[in-house]
TrEMBL record:
This protein's UniProt keywords: Repeat, WD repeat
Annotated Gene3D superfamilies: YVTN repeat-like/Quinoprotein amine dehydrogenase
Protein name: EML-like second beta-propeller domain-containing protein
Residue ranges of every copy of the EML-like second beta-propeller domain listed in the record: 59-183
Claim: Repeat is one of the keywords in the record: yes
Repeat found in the keyword field: yes
Length: 184
């Protein structure tokens, strides 16, 4: 896959069944939306101008982003207008989910966890499992959604430091994780 070069660094990239979302700059909320054929569809700026950590999920006409201040926000595409009506947000069925924020994933947080302790999450393509990676080198497997605090999970060790990213393979048979200081 090749995306034309932007003037700013790419902060995140998300592929969904209907589009490719490319965050071209963390500063100011600049977003480019590409169709699956990689023709530039639309570019827009999120109306709040928030610093974007990453696009966490997408469905037709909506993006779910996590900001640098640990806030989950939903925007309309391509207008960039923020959705504030929680009943509308609650009815969205997301095509993908990689957010550590939201009512659907409250259970991933342990009793003594701080906001920065859980680094990454991914819901399986089947939508029934959620896997997370944290600062302690652990990969955890949950049922999805997990809206109750301190949800039951399975823990897996193998990273020497924090887990920086995690994904299910296309058939949900395997989980691939990347860690911070795994070279030692």
């Amino acid at each position: 896959m090749f995306l034309p070069v932007a003037r700013y660094s790419t902060a995140d990239l998300l592929v969904s069944p209907s589009a490719i979302i490319n965050i071209v700059s963390k500063e100011g909320g600049a977003v480019k939306l590409w169709d699956q054929e990689l023709r530039r569809c639309r570019a827009f700026r999120l109306e709040t101008g928030q610093t974007i950590d990453c696009v966490r999920s997408v469905c037709r006409g909506k993006v779910n982003v996590s900001t640098g201040s640990y806030k989950r926000q939903v925007y309309e595409v391509p207008s960039g207008k923020q959705l504030l009506d929680q009943t509308v947000i609650d009815r969205i069925t997301w095509a993908t989910w990689t957010s550590v924020l939201g009512d659907e994933v409250i259970g991933i947080w342990s009793r003594h966890a701080e906001k920065a302790d859980v680094n990454c999450a991914c819901v399986s393509h089947s939508g029934i499992s959620l896997v997370t990676g944290d600062d302690f080198g652990m990969v955890k497997l949950f049922d999805f959604p997990c809206p109750e605090k301190f949800a039951k999970h399975k823990r897996f060790f193998g990273h020497s430091a924090h887990v920086t990213n995690i994904r299910f393979t296309s058939g949900d048979r395997y989980v691939v994780s990347a860690g911070g200081d795994d070279s030692r």
